[in-house]
Protein 1
Amino acid sequence: MTVELRPTGVACNIQCQYCYQNPIRDADNVPRSYDLEAMKAAVEREGGPFTVFGGEPLLVAEEDLETLWAWGLERWGSNGIQTNGVLINDNHVRMFHQYKVEVGISIDGPGELNDVRWAGTLERTREDTARTEAAIERLCREGIPPSLIVTLHRGNATSDKLPALQDWFRRLEGMGITSARLHDLEVEGDDVGAAYALSHEENMAAFTSFAALETELSTLRFDVFDDMRNLLVGNDDQTTCVWNACDPYTTRAVRGVEGTGQSSNCGRTNKDGIDFVKAPAEGFERYLALYHTPQEHGGCSGCRFFIMCKGQCPGTAIDGDWRNRTRDCELWKGMFRHLEEGMLDAGMQPLSASPERAQIEGAFLDLWSAGRSLTIAGARRWMNEGRDLAAVSAGGGSHGDIPHGDSDA
Ligand SMILES: C[S@@+](CC[C@H](N)C(=O)[O-])C[C@H]1O[C@@H](n2cnc3c(N)ncnc32)[C@H](O)[C@@H]1O
Ligand code: SF4
Ligand code: SF4
């Protein structure tokens, strides 16, 4: 599991209109300084290694990035960064090589498809997008291709825009990109939803079109589909956090360290603009409640995909209230159905259509009631090995916002 180091908190050089960190900016909880020694001590306390995250981590002074990465290389043998890519310069590229920095870049498509990642004026936005595109090409040319995060919304994934987005992925594969993460849009507030959210039908059309594109591509993978297929067969030890019963007060997959050295949670759970202190123990009340609550009241009761989906990320819950299931239920249910159908056609038996499902659901309810959680694969092992609760530690989930994150399962 990777520590997310956020020296400058949510400070950013651009203003993506949909950013889930906007409530923190609106509350003016943006730090003005950071303390290198306090951050290093906190990363050690969390057990490292770390990825530099933000806001925008390239706002950190270059000499301080060098200090952190030289230390990270010596201590853990590699480093990471998750950036919008706009500010990448020659010195950064030198450091990426020298300190073995795995680079993740966020961009929602070429040219106008990236306009929602706004930089103040249309001209500035297009210039910044061109800079990010150039940085991706350069890193590919220099043999260190970044992994990409692409968020799908009205600006890049309606039916008129999908062909251009798909062509871009074909070109990226040709350049050497092998890993892309597709984000569904997390909606913070009605205004963002009205302006940028795809309808459920549009979301389904977009995601199924990318599942189809993947079969045409040979080396570029969209990890969301691998996750969902692996969940359907219970081979889910390496899946991302959104499928792994995340407690919004501890966010197991995200051990954040702020510029002061304070530890923090995943920003997706922060709906009030305040970074609450991490809770010392995990609770699974959300998942027990979702299992028992009818779907018309915000729960998941009776859903055959529950052990795979678990109501998905609490940061995306209906009405911003983590007790509810995700507002994107229709998308995920539709995609699980789509992938399930493909498996049944291929003569496989996904867990959603297997009598074993009820047993695994029972195991999860027992684990959660005891304040524990596992992956499906872990629950199967636990059942086979005599259901010893004392032997269970939490399982599953690397953070969905850093594509090179590893898993703690
Ligand atoms: C908050 S940014 C921080 C790191 C860096 N500034 C970047 O752009 O990669 C982390 C990731 O979250 C994504 N993101 C931000 N708001 C989002 C939202 N509302 N829904 C889905 N993804 C979002 C960004 O596009 C980016 O990939
Ligand atoms: S993105 Fe992951 S860590 Fe963050 S709230 Fe969602 S499930 Fe939890
Ligand atoms: S698909 Fe919908 S109902 Fe089923 S577990 Fe996921 S959020 Fe709940």
Protein 2
Amino acid sequence: MLKIKFLGAAMQVTGSRTLVQYNKSQYLVDCGLFQGPRMIREQNWQPHGDLKNVKALILTHAHIDHSGYIPKFVKDGFGGPIYCSEGTADLCHILLPDSGYLQEEDAHFANSKRISRHVPALPLYTEHDAIESLQYLKPQPMDTWIELERGLSFRLIRSGHILGSSFIQFSYDSGHGSRLLTFSGDIGNGRSLILKEPIQISETDELVMESTYGDRVQPKGNVMGQLRDIINKVLKRGGTLVIPAFAVGRTQEILYMIHQLEKTGEISKYDVYLDSPMALDATELYMKHGDDLKSEVIADHTVSTLTCARFTPVRTADESMLLCMNTDPKIVISAAGMLTGGRIMHHLKSKLPDPKSGVLFVGYQVEGTKGFLLKNGLTDIRIHHQNVTVEAEIFSSDSLSAHADSNDIIRWINGLNKKPSKIFLNHGEKSAIEALQYRIKYELKIDTVIANPDEEFVIDK
Ligand SMILES: [Zn+2]
């Protein structure tokens, strides 16, 4: 008997958790945090009765919406193995403690402003809880079957979304032969300049598919040319180009692009500062996991292709503050990517009033964030209780997404030699998920259902 139950990322994009029940045993695919507005985040505090008997956890990748609930889960008593790829385990060592730190900061802030309905406001988990939970990570090699119990095994297959990201494929004994159930996790689009593309698997009997960009086709412009023009425009007039970036993935892509543009002489050798300890750690991990990277990225072992000629890592808060005061032409990459806080806010406070400078958005900006507002033409912004006038030029590029778009997903499913008998759609907002369901049903003629929150499906009786 095999059942799956969607405990999160059903009709939404965060809180990825799917329970897999095989006979009497339970396993959990991903253990993500609900993120976004308060109404969604409050789901992290709901009791998780369904998770009490979970024997093992398996992760598709390290993004917090897929891994960020682990410390809470462990704190509440889970002590089983957490299987994932080597890259995912390494990234979790950076991302989970940081998430714990942010939870503590949020609780501290709520208490100081008395804005929580709970007094005192408590963190969901602390940095210490997160560090404790890391001991349960059990990294596994890719493409290797691992037996969970008699009749049930799984393997990880590269999905090309971020470092270490993988599809999870279960092989289960159905009583009349073995069958395959595959979870896509987040799937890459094959257009990353540094990561290898997602592997085209050849068969699966059932498929759980993400739908983040199910209603969109990404612009496929010349990203490198765009970046070249923006850098030249801002730096040649003596300004600073500030790039708010996500620490894992986007930052490394941009660093590689700058390296390439320098190498081909399309831009001069400018000062490039990476002002984010987490992004610096993640960049080191990318270089360590050569297996996930394209051959041209690791081809030149003498120089790191993820740094450039005049690259400066900025680790301490003091160095970061000094950099804010620096008025020389330069490129500054800093976090948080959606301007939800962090060092980037100091750089913006210093450079937004400067008409020579520029800000380049390279990632998805959630509605309501300062990043969204600035990208959409806000002329005055409040940073650290001060009004800041926006004189700098605002640029954005939407071609650098780490997700597959609607066409990529259809192409990948169509590439299966043996098509699944059923597809379950999760990890998408309503419009995206419905658009994707329509396309799969009518273009590929495969039975496709949308998973609702807490909905259970019997896969095999
Ligand atoms: Zn992801």
